[in-house]
Design a protein that fits this description.
This protein is an all-beta fold. The chain has one domain: Sandwich (Jelly Rolls), CATH 2.60.120. 0% of the residues lie in helices and 43% in strands. The protein has no helices and nine strands. It has a five-stranded antiparallel beta sheet with strand order 1-2-9-4-7, with no helix packed on it. A four-stranded antiparallel beta sheet has the order 3-8-5-6, with no helix packed on it. A hairpin with a 2-residue loop joins strand 5 and strand 6. It is globular.
Length: 121
């Protein structure tokens, strides 16, 4: 497969790209009853995710392409099937090749959905 299935890309779950650390990325999110989130992203152009931290743990797995986690001066290249765990409070960033697809699980609320347009009668 070279894309996530259509049922996983419902517009109601689309992540606001302006709220992300990576330009050109497309993502969708699902919320857990405990406040956690699972998000999956496709980055058609590749690029850099700016350094940031979270107040919760993050787990990620690469589905396609390559994602390099950067923590301090260490680089962790991840290929399809590779997993990585980032402890809360750890400053991190990343680089991805074009068409990289990843799945991220967050122990808290990370992603904001696109605001739906208001409808008037």
């Amino acid at each position: 497969m070279h894309d996530f299935p259509e049922f996983m890309k419902n517009p109601l779950n689309k992540i606001d790209p302006g709220s992300q650390f990576t330009r050109g990325i497309e993502g969708y999110v699902f919320d857990g009853a405990d406040g956690s989130q699972m998000a999956y992203w496709t980055n058609p152009v590749g690029g850099h995710s700016g350094e940031h931290t979270h107040e919760y743990d993050e787990y990620l797995v690469v589905v396609q392409g390559q994602y390099v986690v950067l923590i301090g001066d260490k680089k962790y290249p991840l290929n399809p099937g590779d997993e990585f765990f980032i402890k809360k409070g750890t400053p991190h960033s990343g680089d991805s090749l074009p068409y990289t697809r990843t799945i991220h699980c967050f122990g808290g609320k990370r992603a904001e959905r696109v605001k739906s347009p208001s409808h008037t009668r």
